[in-house]
Specification:
By secondary structure, this protein is α+β, with helices and mostly antiparallel strands. It folds into 4 domains: 2-106, Orthogonal Bundle (Arc Repressor Mutant, subunit A), CATH 1.10.10; 130-331, Rossmann fold (3-Layer(aba) Sandwich), CATH 3.40.50.300; 337-404, Arc Repressor Mutant, subunit A (Orthogonal Bundle); 423-579, Arc Repressor Mutant, subunit A (Orthogonal Bundle), CATH 1.10.10. It has a 5-stranded antiparallel sheet with strand order 4-3-2-1-8, covered by helices on one side. The radius of gyration is 29 Å and the shape is globular. The termini are far apart.
Length: 582
């Protein structure tokens, strides 16, 4: 338990105490305060806090200001004359109060009510990446040992939210003292337009590290134009004059400077989300990997394979490096059920889980850690997962059946997917929205019906999407009546399908559902009873209840003709339920 002034902060139980009284803090504010109190006197940058609270999710720094303002109100603090939280404009925050460790947690009085839930922000643990961590550790040992030094590149790959950044963060925190780490991240819409965007960011980190003075001297001597480009003044007038030429930033100079930096110490360069990178950065990466000068250099590259088209230069670069044995790949897979249970226990800060929770979250997240965390937060927000018990015995329990959770995608998750959808071309959005009317799997002929287009043309466009986008992939072919064949596709995740479905207007969805039902009737003319259930589903979704009931009655008659009496009764009952709503 941390003590500062008249406050006590108990991270284990998620409680803040002031003069013997418990203060109810929302999870995000509690997480910010905990992180600041655990790092007193140190500048905590906006990026560090955002990474802690919203790992692998883009959030504007302005959000932090709102939470810190609320914290100041609770603590009775003033921004102009801070006793606890000092603001460093455009940089971050520092906790300035003296913090001591309280050895007597029981000194805090017992709460008269239910304990506040522990914070969910920032995973409490790192799970299920033992193999990948061992791979990164082995690659680091290869570059760190020996006088001559070696250089290696590791591609850390996987879908959005799978934990690439979490893996790299955890690995970098375990590196031995003396290792220099520099990071650069590509930003969608910026990285591809601005040359060397992640490289510039990494150089900025180098010049702000503990060995900044020495590293900047090396850059000023060997790559002055690069130093000038990130706003650092080169040491000599001769070096300063180099920046006047637009072609002054020579990749070879920077490679030589990085080799000099890593001659006597390990250097780890991290380039994140290189699927959004520019070609100049990729060319520099290729040069770094192929040069033969001694260097204790490890380059970690993260990207999403499904976010790059077949002809993307990053795909060719990785293939070439693998052939030349200059790199290795750590491909992250979704979590199995056992790892999902560990992840949730870390998020909830408890050693056991309510029955069925881990299975439910694993099923709906499909093993994606980011999706799983969002689902757990959503369960708490919906008060399906609630805190129970007193003080140290407090734990989360399921208060309502999990199947009562509404089908709405958790807000944070929906926003992330919506941002990805907005980057797509209009025709791609149209096809994906039409595909979402079916299920996780959808046939090309149904999409063609929904958008009123030729099936062959839609299949070609869907094939192109499957090649170029990570949203869908081709899964096989269906045989239609008359022997014709139609390809079908699957969404990468149910979350994508649900967001695409919900973003359409009700009128547009209804129109498309009716078109699909009518195309089913055309395809199976004379055999409509075979697909009556599916037709009824589309008519009902469109609000065409009479037509839905008629389709079900036809299917019931067909079932009775086949002596499938139980099925006929079930279909007639369902038709009656729909007719009652007309």
């Amino acid at each position: 338990m941390k003590q500062f002034d008249s406050f006590r902060l108990d991270s284990a139980s998620g409680c803040l105490w002031h003069d013997g009284e418990e203060i109810d803090l929302p999870p995000k504010q509690f997480a910010i305060l905990s992180f600041l109190v655990e790092n007193p006197g140190r500048l905590i940058t906006h990026d560090e806090l955002l990474d802690k609270l919203w790992p692998e999710t883009f959030v504007q720094p302005q959000v932090l200001r709102t939470y810190v303002l609320e914290l100041r109100k609770v603590l009775g603090d003033e921004a102009g004359n801070p006793r606890f939280i000092q603001t460093l404009p455009k940089r971050g925050y520092r906790f300035v109060a003296s913090v001591t460790e309280s050895q007597d947690p029981a000194s805090a009085p017992a709460s008269s009510g239910t304990a506040a839930p522990p914070p969910l922000a920032g995973s409490a643990g790192f799970v299920n990446r033992t193999r990948e961590l061992a791979l990164l550790g082995a690659e680091f040992d290869r570059i760190a040992q020996g006088d001559q030094g070696k250089r290696r590149v590791v591609f850390v790959t996987g879908e959005a939210g799978i934990g690439k950044t979490a893996l790299v963060d955890f690995f970098c925190r375990q590196l031995p003292p003396g290792t220099v780490v520099a990071r650069g991240e590509c930003v969608p819409g910026v990285g591809a337009r601005e040359e060397y965007y992640p490289v510039n960011e990494a150089l900025g980190h180098l010049c702000a590290s503990g060995a900044a003075e020495e590293l900047c001297r090396i850059l000023a001597r060997m790559a002055p134009a690069w130093l000038a480009h990130i706003g650092r003044q080169p040491e000599t007038p001769e070096a300063s004059a180099v920046q006047q030429s637009p072609e002054a930033r020579m990749p070879g100079e920077l490679c030589a400077a990085l080799e000099e930096i890593s001659r006597d110490r390990p250097l780890v360069l991290v380039f994140e989300d290189l699927h959004w990178s520019d070609s100049a950065t990729l060319n520099l990466l290729a040069a770094l990997a192929r040069r033969r000068a001694p260097a204790h250099l490890l380059v970690l590259v993260t990207f999403r394979p499904r976010s790059i088209a077949p002809g993307h230069p990053l795909r060719a670069l990785k293939h070439d490096m693998l052939v030349r044995k200059l790199c290795t790949e750590a491909a992250l897979e979704p979590f199995p059920k056992s790892a999902m249970a560990s992840l949730i226990m870390g998020e909830l800060h408890q050693s056991t889980l309510p029955p069925g929770l881990s299975e439910f979250v694993h099923h709906h997240s499909e093993g994606n850690p980011l999706f799983a965390n969002a689902i757990v937060e959503h369960l708490i927000a919906q008060q399906i997962l609630v805190i129970s018990g007193e003080n140290g015995a407090a734990h989360y329990e399921i208060r309502s059946p999990l199947n009562t959770l509404d089908s709405e995608v958790p807000g944070k998750l929906a926003e992330m997917v919506e941002l990805e959808i907005e980057r797509l071309a209009p025709d791609a959005k149209e096809l994906l929205e039409a595909g979402s009317l079916l299920n996780v799997a959808f046939p090309a002929w149904a999409v063609a019906a929904a958008v009123d287009c030729e099936a062959a043309e839609v299949e070609e466009r869907c094939d192109a999407m499957a090649r170029d986008l990570h949203f869908v992939e081709r899964a096989g072919e269906d045989e239609l009546p008359g022997g014709a064949r139609s390809a079908f596709y699957v969404f990468a995740h149910e979350v994508y399908r649900e967001v695409l479905y919900q973003r359409q207007s009700a009128a547009r969805r209804a129109q498309r559902h009716v078109r699909i039902a009518e195309r089913l009737a055309q395809l199976f003319k004379g055999r409509e009873a075979d697909v009556a259930r599916e037709m009824a589903m589309h008519y009902e979704a469109a609000g065409e209840l009479k037509r839905a009931a008629q389709a079900l009655r036809a299917a019931a008659t067909h079932a009775a003709d086949r002596s499938a009496h139980f099925e006929a009764v079930e279909l007639n009952d369902r038709a009656a339920q729909i007719e009652a709503r007309v």
